[in-house]
Specification:
By secondary structure, this protein is α/β, with parallel strands linked by helices. It is built from 24 helices and seven strands. It has a five-stranded mixed beta sheet. A two-stranded antiparallel ribbon has the order 1-2.
């Protein structure tokens, strides 16, 4: 086996292992991960907030045992594959082994450690953006249309994973018009590639049409509840901080496209990033939406730095960028990764802005990884004490609560439901309901509706973890219904009034 291959495999192994080491054992899975895992039991061509690829991976995780190891393995794998694609990009640009090592180091010790620690569509999204750019680079180099078709397939897989990749295309197409590649628009192969991509994503587009485009409703919800708190300058600051430790390489990548003659055909990628960032800034997008733009620039930057340090005494400066990356990344570890217990972050007095626009003592992602096993244990114990298990209905306020109970429960047959997101389509109301174990968020503790439907309303539990986003969540036992509850809920679901 060649030395280059051994070093690459070494980086891949280190990357995957690191993803298991950056999360302190005190933390549970994260809120969104539970929803994605439950999608494995309800395969479809689309969901309320995301396309279907995540559910296919969840189905595989389920059949592998649904363990923590496999949940964390796939985002780690996608992060490792991103390093592989950028490594191959460096090789295609005639870069040296040093340039390959520099890119792999920069990507391994970057914000991707944070992204790749969670089982969400983001890890595959970044990989697919990188694949789209890589295949287009290969097309520019070879003018072989198989790379254009590979680009279409990469985009389609990315689209079926996360609609965010549409911005990759929206930035790249006008950039093509500004380059010599504009001749592509006159080539039939370009439209064949478009057809291939459209054919692959068409089942999801059909599903969206049949379900009245829930993605548009989800985007409206995001705009009203989360993006309204996003400041455009915060987005710009995020772009600097994501790869702060290796910013020098990205800047070198930008410069190389205008100063290194060999890279003139790839100037198109600078225009693509400008167009895409402009769109994101205009729409007040979250900062991490744009992360997929940057890995490919590590390839350009590393090759350019390698070129600058190729002769004489400058060759001894080659390890300086690697040392800088490592030294700058170390201080970011505490803020970016859940390496410590929550009380340690609290003592340090750090402040983190959540989606509600308010400041909190720990990161929202970290807070979303606490309290779930506690919730599941308490629901389990309440469920086991009740008779007539087949008439018990576990109803939660959020998908996180329902998914966490379903993942961590130790009781066979216990299933939690919610009238939010995709769960509203999965809940079984064609059965008798006599008792409800109701899980309520702090903001929804009113008992007016409960008292109108049940003769007996008793609080039986509460989430105590003071650092959990779910702190104060109540578990309420509702019994002795005043009417046919299942029939009422079926009627309300049909009318779109479930609450």
């Amino acid at each position: 086996m060649k030395k280059e291959t051994l070093i690459l495999l070494g980086f891949i192994v280190v990357k995957i292992v690191l993803q298991y080491l950056v999360i302190h054992p005190i933390y549970d899975l994260q809120r969104d991960e539970f929803l994605h895992l439950d999608q494995a039991k309800h395969l479809a061509w689309g969901y309320h907030s995301i396309p279907p690829v995540t559910s296919w991976i969840s189905w595989l995780i389920l059949h592998l045992g649904n363990s923590y190891f496999w949940v964390k393995f796939f985002p780690a794998l996608f992060g490792a594959l991103t390093i592989l694609v950028v490594w191959k990009t460096v090789e295609s640009l005639k870069g040296s082994l040093y340039a390959c090592i520099l890119t792999a180091t920069a990507l391994t010790f970057s914000s991707l450690l944070r992204i790749n620690m969670l089982y969400q569509p983001n890890s595959l999204d970044i990989l697919c953006w990188t694949l789209v750019y890589y295949t287009f680079i290969r097309f520019i180099q070879t003018e072989n249309y198989k790379w254009l078709y590979a680009m279409a397939i990469s985009f389609a897989i990315g689209f079926l994973n996360k609609y965010n990749i549409a911005f990759c295309l929206l930035g790249l197409l006008p950039a093509i018009l500004l380059s010599e590649q504009r001749k592509l628009f006159l080539k039939p192969q370009f439209y064949i590639a478009l057809f291939i991509g459209l054919a692959i994503v068409s089942p999801n587009l059909t599903w969206q049409f049949q379900h009245d485009f829930p993605v548009l409703k989800h985007m409206k919800e995001l705009q009203e509840t989360q993006l309204v708190h996003v400041e455009r300058m915060d987005f710009v600051k995020d772009q600097i901080m994501f790869f702060f430790s290796s910013l020098l390489i990205i800047i070198a990548g930008f410069i190389s496209l205008f100063t290194y003659k060999t890279f003139k055909p790839y100037r198109i990628f600078f225009y693509a990033i400008l167009f895409t960032l402009t769109l994101f800034i205009y729409l007040k997008a979250k900062g991490y939406y744009a992360i997929g733009l940057y890995p490919i620039f590590f390839a350009f930057g590393a090759v350019y730095i390698s070129y600058l340090f190729r002769h004489g005494w400058k060759i001894y400066l080659r390890f300086v960028p690697i040392v800088i990356i490592l030294l700058l990344f170390i201080p970011l570890l505490d803020r970016a990764l859940p390496l410590k217990k929550p009380n340690e972050y609290f003592k340090e007095g750090q402040q983190h802005t959540w989606e509600d626009g308010k400041k909190h003592p720990i990161s929202q992602d970290f807070a979303d990884m606490l309290g779930w096993q506690e919730l599941a244990r308490k629901v389990d114990s309440i469920y086991l004490m009740l008779p007539n298990k087949e008439t018990i209905f576990v109803l939660c306020d959020s998908y996180g609560q329902a998914g966490a109970i379903n993942y961590y429960t130790k009781v066979k047959g216990l299933k939690a439901d919610s009238f939010t997101d995709d769960y509203i389509n999965w809940v079984n109301l064609d059965r008798e309901i006599k008792t409800v174990i109701r899980v309520k968020e702090v903001k929804n503790l009113t008992s007016t509706r409960d008292l109108s439907l049940f003769n007996k309303v008793v609080g039986v539990g509460e989430i105590k973890n003071e650092y959990a986003r779910e702190k104060g969540t109540q578990i309420i036992l509702l019994s002795e219904p005043k009417l046919d509850l299942a029939k009422l809920l079926r009627t309300e679901r049909a009318a779109g009034r479930l609450e």
